[in-house]
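pls design
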């Protein structure tokens, strides 16, 4: 006999052809299309402080560990510049590491994981915190505001041509610990957190006080999501060229996200006056009628 879950039981006991039944079935159907790692228990409190300072400290610590990487770490610590040639910087750094230590491959892997497991999560957390303050102050602001972290890439669609959207819920009262631990193979490398996205997108413990804010804080799955989920073994199987290209891409993604978040924080100083006026006339809202929440 099939085990009946609480959700199944609730739906079964709800009269057919009612709004309540329709809502429950819609929520159940949507969850079927959400990858399971988004539904894992989050880590609370989050290990990510959501500050630029946390990333800058991590970059400095990495440079101390790998002296040959200090120059590239210094570039990352400086204000974002569109003139940075990551190809030239990475080549020079890897050549120096190979000459001095003979482990340029390991260095490049560690730079990649520094970006995907520390830098990106920290700035996503920072961006979401800024989003919360923005939507709390300007509740009618569009979810297509282009400085959001989940507007860096195209929103991902399910097979039914609907976007994959994950709710931002308060952490459960009984919280799961991190479901990952350092395996000791790469000393000092932050381990993969399978529940990293659940942790980053969780809502405040008390929940959102306004429905519009709750709706706006939902997470839209994009191509950037996969960057935080790469496992060590998968990256180790990449060719040197693949790893090089992926490392350049993730550093660029982090720079764009950092720059976007700094622009949002500058708007906050101006009391969000940049967002005044209709959404279809605002330069900070993507003008694409096809995108739906």
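designed seq:
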């Amino acid at each position: 006999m099939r085990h009946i879950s609480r959700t199944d039981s609730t739906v079964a006991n709800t009269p057919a052809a009612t709004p309540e039944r329709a809502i429950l079935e819609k929520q159940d159907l949507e969850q079927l299309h959400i990858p399971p790692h988004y539904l894992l228990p989050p880590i609370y409190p989050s290990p990510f402080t959501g500050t630029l300072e946390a990333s800058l400290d991590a970059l400095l610590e990495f440079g101390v560990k790998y002296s040959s990487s200090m120059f590239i770490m210094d570039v990352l610590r400086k204000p974002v510049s569109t003139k940075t040639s990551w190809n030239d910087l990475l080549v020079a750094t890897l050549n120096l590491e190979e000459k001095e230590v003979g482990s340029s491959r390991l260095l490049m892997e560690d730079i990649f994981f520094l970006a995907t497991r520390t830098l990106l999560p920290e700035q996503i957390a920072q961006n979401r915190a800024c989003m919360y303050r923005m939507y709390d102050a300007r509740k009618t602001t569009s979810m297509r505001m282009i400085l959001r972290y989940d507007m860096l890439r195209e929103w991902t669609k399910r097979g039914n041509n609907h976007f994959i959207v994950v709710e931002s819920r308060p952490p459960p009262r009984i919280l799961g610990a991190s479901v990952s631990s350092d395996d000791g193979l790469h000393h000092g490398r932050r381990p993969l957190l399978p529940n990293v996205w659940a942790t980053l997108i969780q809502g405040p413990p008390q929940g959102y006080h306004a429905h519009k804010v709750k709706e706006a804080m939902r997470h839209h799955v994009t191509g950037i999501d996969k960057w935080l989920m790469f496992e060590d073994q998968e990256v180790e199987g990449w060719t040197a060229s693949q790893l090089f290209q992926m490392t350049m891409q993730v550093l660029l993604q982090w720079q764009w996200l950092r720059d976007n978040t700094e622009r949002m924080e500058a708007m906050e100083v101006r009391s969000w006056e940049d967002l005044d006026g209709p959404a279809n006339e605002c330069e900070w809202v993507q003008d694409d009628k096809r995108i739906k929440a």
